[in-house]
Amino acid sequence: MFVTTIERTNEQLNQKARMSADQLGLPYVERKKRTIKQLQAIYEKPCIVIGKARTELYGTGDDKPLFFHPNMAAIRMKRIERGEADPFLAITGLHEGMSLLDCTMGMAADAWVAAFAAGEAGRVTGLEVNPYIHFIMSEGRRHYEESGSRYKDALKRINMVQADYSDFLREAETDSYDVVYLDPMFTETVEESANMSGLRGFASYQDVPEEAIMHAKRVAKKRVVMKDHFRSHRFEKFGFTVHKRKSAKFHYGVIELNY
């Protein structure tokens, strides 16, 4: 992995790229009007590209970068404002003042919707194990907070933490969140999730450890929720009650806790 800038750069962007490289412990490479393909052919590594409006993450040989975008989160929040149901909120039972730990934040769509629903009195923590995805999301949020969107306050309320959820859950206090949520990468590709293609090259495919579920049940006060492929073995393995969604390629599983 290395850090560079957009092609039309300036000294301010060059300096930001150098600082970002130092922050991530990565080498900085001057762009020198070379294309991303040319740079990757030389260094044979993925790269982070620092721009004026957004920061991009390119996998080796990828034409389409991964970058922060409101995407479906904004659409979902607009629907919620119109009084429409959101399956994620329905299954988590999340509402004003509640707290949620998103163990697999990724592009933060669910964490963002959760922060929107929980409001200022609520609390949402999003964990991302990959330091480069975490960096892209943190930078993207900073740019978005400068926009005039009415959803920026909800995004700002997400506590984005770069951490492995197994380690975080092991150290977390008992009953410290109302809901613990897991959305592990599916073992089967879902065609409807083609917009996730850029994420797949950097996401963690480690299976969900049994210890993590044990601690999730300790950390959650109300319920543990997992989103997974409809053919996943993990629902049965860990004792989740499956809420099947007609014609959907993924279902939600719930472990209700007796509090």
N-to-C span: 46 Å
> Major sheet, described briefly?
7 strands, mixed
* Unreliable runs: 186-196
Radius of gyration: 19 Å
Proportion of residues in extended strands: 15-25%
What is the CATH architecture descriptor of the largest domain? 3-Layer(aba) Sandwich
Average pLDDT, all residues: 89
Overall tally of structural domains: 2
CATH topology of the largest domain: Rossmann fold
Helix/strand order: EHHEEHHEHEHHEHEHHEHEE
**Which shape, going by the Cα principal axes?**
globular
Query: What's the CATH H-level superfamily name of the largest domain?
Result: Vaccinia Virus protein VP39
Q: What structural category arises from helix and sheet content?
A: alpha/beta
Per CATH, the class of the largest domain reads Alpha Beta
**Tally of alpha and pi helices:** 11
Number of strands: 10
Strand order, sheet with most strands: 6-5-4-7-8-10-9
Architecture overview:
The chain has 259 residues and is α/β, with parallel strands linked by helices. It has two domains: 57 residues, no CATH class; 186 residues, Rossmann fold (3-Layer(aba) Sandwich), CATH 3.40.50. It has eleven helices and ten strands. Strand 9 and strand 10 form a beta hairpin. Helix 3 packs parallel to helix 5. About 4% of the residues have low confidence.
What is this entry, summarized?
It comes from Pradoshia eiseniae. The protein is α/β, with parallel strands linked by helices and 259 residues long.
Secondary structure layout:
Layout: E1 2-5, H1 11-24, H2 36-43, E2 47-50, E3 55-58, H3 71-81, H4 87-92, E4 99-102, H5 109-118, E5 123-128, H6 131-145, H7 152-156, E6 158-162, H8 165-171, E7 177-182, H9 197-200, H10 210-219, E8 220-229, H11 234-238, E9 241-243, E10 250-256
Parallel strand pairs: 1-2, 4-5, 4-7, 5-6, 7-8
Antiparallel strand pairs: 2-3, 8-10, 9-10
